[in-house]
Amino acid sequence: MDSEVVKTKFIVQNDLCVGCGLCVDACAMEILEMYERVSVMRDADKCIECGGCVRVCPKGAITVSNVSAPQKKRTLHTGRQKQRRADSNDGDAPILVQLLDLLSELNPVQQKSWRGTDISRFDAFKVEGHRSSVRYYQANKLEKIGVACMNFHGLMKASIITVAPGPEYDIPYYGIDWDESEEHIFFYCDLLPTDDPVRNADYLQNYLYTPLEEHYLTYCNMPGLKNNVYHWARALFSPYVLTGTIDKSNLKAIDMLYNCTADYLRSWIELWKSATSLDPNSDYMKLVQARRKKISQILHANDPGGPPMVKLLGKESAQIALEIVLP
């Protein structure tokens, strides 16, 4: 892993800040607060630089950036322990255990290299004393299964699974992101379409409506769900995406989240079973590959998980990890 020297710099232009508090609500680490109607950061050590506060500010009053600072060196295996860490923060999150069990039907085989680079070090490592992992699997009909469990300062655990079809298949991606802190869970679950469902009515019917309509109607009105998704992401998702934030006190909704991710995955597995190989050089598959390439470009350019990964792992290691876990 890379060693990274970083410092978070949080700047608010007081003449622009209107005291709306949207940035406070958007902060994944819950370290922003309003003081005399201006946003302030309580603990820059815990900032993961996701950019959520910057994006929601209606006046563009917030800037978050990195500057060198030797007193805040971040590297792996530092041995530093934070008092707020709970034992449950180590190891795979329960959501990953559940979904990986379902994926075992595909007979996935874990790989130790990614595009010629040894990735065995990603299998289990520690960042500031907290266990994390990034794993890459291969299976029939698939380009990859990317699985990550990233622990940010013992305060938030991000669990991600992306299942990408092989280049001869047009079935959707399966994707989930489950970001859990002490008080809430942000998640998304979807079958990301690899063709335009407006242009291709058969794709909409066979790959989205038929497998997902019933599930979507079951879960779309789960109690307490606070919808929260970036505009650029909405352009990529299917009409059946489920995403938002749930308070962890809402046990009924959390049970629904677990069931939702499993039901969507079971439906995707049925699509995988029936998927047939198509000519990658056909006009249709060229459209599919072009869309997949564009999805990847947009996610790598905009995904809020990128800056935190760079901050914790360093640029080179973060780049490899993101290539594995993003479509």
**Strand count:** 16
Order of SSEs, N→C? EEHEEHEEHEEEEEEEEEHHEHHHH
| Apparent shape | globular
Tell me the structural class. alpha+beta
Q: In terms of per-residue confidence, which ranges show pLDDT below 50 for 5 or more consecutive residues?
A: 67-89
Please give the CATH class of the largest domain.
Alpha Beta
Which topology of the largest domain does CATH recognise? oxygen-dependent coproporphyrinogen oxidase
Give the C-alpha Rg.
20 Å
Task: Tell me the domain tally.
Answer: 2
Query: What share of residues are in beta strands?
Result: 25-35%
Count of helix runs: 9
Cα distance, first to last residue?
22 Å
Mean pLDDT: 86
Which CATH architecture of the largest domain is right?
3-Layer(aba) Sandwich
Helicity, in percent? Answer: 25-40%
Task: Characterize the biggest β-sheet.
Answer: 8 strands, antiparallel
Walk me through the structure.
The chain has 327 residues and is of the alpha+beta class. The protein has two domains: 4-74, Alpha-Beta Plaits (2-Layer Sandwich); 87-325, oxygen-dependent coproporphyrinogen oxidase, CATH 3.40.1500. 32% of the residues lie in helices and 26% in strands. The protein contains nine helices and 16 strands. It has helices at residues 22-26, 52-56, 94-103, 201-219, 231-234, 251-274, 283-302, 306-313, 315-325; strands at 4-5, 8-12, 32-35, 38-41, 62-66, 73-74, 109-111, 113-114, 117-118, 125-127, 130-138, 142-152, 156-165, 173-181, 184-192, 242-247. The strands form five sheets. Strands 7, 10, 11, 12, 13, 14, 15 and 16 form an eight-stranded antiparallel β-sheet that branches. A hairpin with a 2-residue loop joins strand 3 and strand 4. Helix 4 packs antiparallel against helix 6 (251-274). The protein is globular. Mean pLDDT is 86; it is low at 67-89.
